[in-house]
């Protein structure tokens, strides 16, 4: 990669400067009058799924229309039309594929609009003016909308997706956004931005999005950069406002004449900006052309695995995985003892195939698999210097939080879940010790279930073939049809969930769960849509106590809650979330199998006569905050829980908080920060914006957490209608009054341990008041809440929330 400033370019660079400057004049947008033949007139349209021809450029090199991406799903796109690999260079909106029957139309009233089969608008081109007369698909790959006077109202070159073509310019304020995966055209995690300050930057889009997007490559041209130019010679370079070349981005020499090559530069889904060439088909030597694009060297950045250095997020390959460059591309791998969360997406992250260590398990059940030059550099929670490797190993074995130990030159780092930004590279001069379970407790996979059932089917087939009687054969053939029908029916019912669940869950038979729970005999909890039973399951000579959640009804809300819960929690992996072990979808039966929490829910102990200790309550408060922070900012799919309350905080044998019950949860798409939904949650914990019919954000969970934190401090419910003093009926009101008047000891009653820690009590009450602010934008993120709880940052004086709390009409 040549990054040369104007002042120090060598003689060779100066020699090629004049032709490049001439090329810069040539690549300015051509008047659309240059192509009158084949212009697309008003009233023209294309329909997805029909055999109508796309709108082609005059040479036929490019085409605009619907390209089928999946069964029943079509992408409105532009692609190279003459090569076997119909490579897409522009798409309208990859986040929602068009269904068969959707139509793109150049309307007679001057709009360019995509409607679904029912006529609802899916996308439209925002025109810069009126008087649209026609469209033109140019040989450059640019689709132009213009007036009769050839004034351009809109063009794809000014609205790129992830690709640049020769003669295309990326101006200040424009971006390329990588797709989510090789086959998923929705917006991904990376952006290539020609910023308004003149800097050309590659950065990772934070999840959830924020103003602090960490860059991993830039030209460092703040104040001087103006446009990124891709000329017909294959040169990609950055210019100043006066046209002076500042930096050469791609300057690979192409031996073949550029007139015989297709070219493109693309920000790919792995975060790397690459330039590709493809020889144009020729009738005389068609068989000699390759069937794939050839990448030009170098990549930007050259090593994406080591380029990403931000201290949060999942890295290139997702949580609990690691990245290694192979043949100039990042190769994602899972550590020993881990499998892919989504086998079809090798950037989805990994999950353990074993039950992770709990606080009461002996270290002898675990050991290490070591790997040199491997590290997850930003997720350590402890560091020790001057220690031998044996000490580092033993210390990690004795610590249930420790997932990996990193050792180098008498330095020991302990890493916790989720493991982030993993990288394997010779420059990483460290040894990774990955903790795995030696007494394997891996749950049986769905594939094992399918294999078992297939074996049963084969036995039945063999029985039919061995039968000597026609009647005997008929009997078994009927039985075979029934078995296949039931098997096919069950597979249809489970297929939608297998995609969401990934590889670390098991499909259970209803009879198996009925037996495990002693015919659903021991009830441990009940909600509006489900009842939870205690059970015991056997795995490879190991007995495991489980909680089996049985849905009451699969109609309307019950079915929706089941789907929400199984979709939300199946892709999570965190110590402060309850772990989903498996599921059952059989007929009308819908059950979820969770690890059993021996200390029940927080509500069971918080409001009992014997209150938990002050230390235990603070331990629960911090654990719950960590779980919410993971859901909001660290999980591969951002999740709003929507029902944080003591009944949904379960406690394991060490009273560690485990967030549960994801039946009301909402998952957000990439780049989505809010969603619309009906009122959810529980009276007293519901944020005020629920009652205003406005889109909600993760801040509704922050509000609920603030109420929960007050309950943990005071050991009382948020609403006590029977309170002797009316001023104490609403806990949030009372807590603020006590804080404002300097009488926090009134909240603590006979809790001597809390009274002796009154400074912390004051800080926690202030945090809670910040969390329950009426304006969601005033509430801190859960990351900031966690930092305040742990004392990493100071807590400022919160404003008075009473102006809205008293006005809320509780449902």
Automatic annotation (TrEMBL):
Main location: membrane
Residues the record lists as binding ATP: 550
Transmembrane regions listed in the UniProt entry: 464-485
Signal peptide: 1-34
Cell division found in the keyword field: no
Similarity-based family: Belongs to the protein kinase superfamily. Ser/Thr protein kinase family.
Every Bulb-type lectin domain range: 37-158
Location in or out of the cell: Membrane
One cellular component (GO) term of this entry: membrane
Source organism of the structure: Nepenthes gracilis
Catalytic activity: L-seryl-[protein] + ATP = O-phospho-L-seryl-[protein] + ADP + H(+); L-threonyl-[protein] + ATP = O-phospho-L-threonyl-[protein] + ADP + H(+)
CDD domains, sorted: B_lectin, STKc_IRAK
InterPro entries for this protein: Bulb-type_lectin_dom, Bulb-type_lectin_dom_sf, G-type_lectin_kinases/EP1-like, Kinase-like_dom_sf, Prot_kinase_dom, Protein_kinase_ATP_BS, Ser/Thr_kinase_AS, SRK-like_kinase
Enzyme Commission (EC) number: 2.7.11.1
Domain Protein kinase residues, every copy: 518-805
Keywords: ATP-binding, Disulfide bond, EGF-like domain, Glycoprotein, Kinase, Lectin, Membrane, Nucleotide-binding, Receptor, Serine/threonine-protein kinase, Signal, Transferase, Transmembrane, Transmembrane helix
Protein name from the UniProt record: Receptor-like serine/threonine-protein kinase
Membrane topology summary: Single-pass type I membrane protein
Pfam (any one): B_lectin
């Amino acid at each position: 990669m040549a990054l040369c400033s104007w002042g120090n370019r060598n003689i060779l660079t100066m020699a090629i400067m004049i032709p490049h400057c001439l090329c810069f004049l040539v690549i300015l947008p051509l008047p659309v009058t240059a192509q009158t033949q084949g212009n697309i007139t008003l009233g023209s349209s294309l329909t997805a799924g029909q055999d109508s021809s796309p709108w082609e450029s005059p040479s036929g090199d490019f085409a605009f229309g619907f390209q089928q991406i999946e069964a029943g799903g079509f992408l409105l796109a532009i692609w190279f039309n003459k090569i076997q690999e119909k490579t897409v260079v522009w798409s309208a909106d990859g986040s929602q594929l068009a269904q068969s029957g959707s139509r793109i139309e150049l309307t007679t009233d001057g709009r360019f609009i995509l409607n679904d089969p029912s006529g609802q608008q899916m996308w439209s081109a925002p025109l810069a003016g009126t008087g649209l007369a026609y469209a033109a698909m140019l040989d450059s790959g640019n689709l132009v909308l213009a007036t009769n006077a050839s004034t351009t109202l809109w063009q794809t070159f000014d609205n790129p997706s992830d690709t640049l073509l020769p003669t295309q310019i990326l101006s200040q304020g424009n971006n390329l956004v990588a797709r989510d995966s090789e086959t998923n055209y929705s917006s991904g995690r990376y952006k290539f931005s020609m910023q308004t300050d003149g800097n050309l930057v590659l950065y990772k889009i934070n999840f959830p999005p924020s103003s602090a997007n960490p860059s991993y490559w830039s030209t460092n041209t703040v104040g001087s950069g103006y446009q990124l130019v891709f000329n017909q010679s294959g040169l990609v370079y950055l210019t100043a406002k006066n046209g002076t070349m500042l930096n050469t981005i791609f300057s690979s020499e192409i031996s073949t004449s550029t007139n015989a090559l297709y070219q493109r530069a693309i920000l790919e889904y792995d975060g790397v900006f690459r330039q590709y060439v493809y020889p144009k088909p020729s009738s005389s030597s068609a068989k000699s052309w390759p069937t794939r694009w050839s990448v030009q060297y170098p990549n930007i950045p050259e090593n994406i695995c080591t380029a990403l250095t931000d201290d949060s997020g999942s890295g290139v390959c997702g949580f609990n995985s690691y990245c290694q460059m192979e043949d100039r591309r990042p190769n994602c791998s899972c550590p020993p003892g881990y499998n892919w969360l989504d086998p079809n997406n090798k950037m989805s992250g990994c999950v353990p195939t074993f039950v992770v260590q709990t606080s009461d398990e002996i270290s002898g059940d675990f050991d290490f698999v070591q790997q040199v030059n491997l590290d997850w550099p930003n997720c350590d929670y402890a560091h020790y210097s001057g220690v031998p490797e044996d000490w580092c190993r033993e210390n990690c074995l004795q610590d249930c939080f420790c997932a990996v130990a990193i050792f180098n030159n008498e330095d020991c780092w302990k890493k916790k879940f989720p493991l982030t930004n993993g990288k394997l590279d010779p420059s990483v001069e460290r040894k990774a010790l990955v903790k795995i379970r030696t007494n394997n407790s891996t749950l049986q996979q769905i594939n094992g279930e399918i294999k078992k059932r297939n074996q049963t089917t084969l036995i039945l087939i063999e029985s039919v073939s061995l039968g000597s009687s026609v009647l005997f054969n008929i009997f078994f053939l009927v039985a075979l049809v029934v078995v296949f029908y039931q098997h096919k029916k069950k597979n249809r019912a489970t297929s939608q969930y297998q995609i969401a669940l990934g590889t670390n869950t098991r499909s259970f038979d209803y009879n198996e769960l009925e037996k495990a729970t002693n015919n659903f005999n021991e009830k441990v909890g009940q909600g509006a849509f489900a009842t939870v039973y205690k059970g015991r399951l056997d795995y490879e000579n190991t007995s495991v106590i489980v909680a089996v959640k049985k849905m009451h009804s699969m109609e309307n809300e019950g079915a929706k809650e089941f789907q929400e819960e199984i979709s939300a929690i199946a892709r999570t992996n965190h110590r402060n979330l309850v772990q989903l072990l498996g599921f059952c979808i059989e007929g009308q039966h819908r059950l979820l199998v969770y690890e059993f929490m021996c200390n029940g829910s927080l509500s069971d102990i918080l409001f009992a006569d014997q209150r938990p200790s002050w230390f235990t309550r603070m331990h629960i408060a911090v654990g719950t905050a960590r779980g919410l922070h993971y859901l909001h900012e660290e999980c591969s799919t951002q999740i709003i829980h929507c029902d944080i309350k003591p009944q949904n905080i379960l406690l394991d044998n060490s009273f560690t908080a485990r967030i549960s019950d994801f039946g009301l949860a909402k998952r957000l798409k990439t780049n989505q920060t809010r969603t619309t939904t009906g009122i959810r949650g529980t009276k007293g914990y519901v944020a005020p914006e629920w009652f205003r019919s406005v889109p909600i954000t993760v801040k509704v969970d922050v509000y609920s957490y603030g109420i929960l934190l007050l309950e943990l401090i005071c050991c009382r419910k948020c609403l006590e209608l029977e309170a002797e003093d009316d001023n104490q009926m609403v806990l949030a009101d009372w807590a603020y009054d006590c804080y404002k008047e300097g009488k926090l000891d009134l909240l603590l009653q006979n809790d001597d341990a809390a009274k002796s820690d009154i400074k912390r009590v004051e800080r926690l009450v202030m945090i809670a008041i910040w969390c329950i602010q009426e304006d969601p934008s005033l509430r801190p993120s859960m990351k900031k809440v966690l930092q305040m709880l742990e004392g990493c940052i100071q807590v400022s004086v919160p404003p008075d929330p009473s102006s809205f709390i008293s006005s809320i009409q509780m449902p």
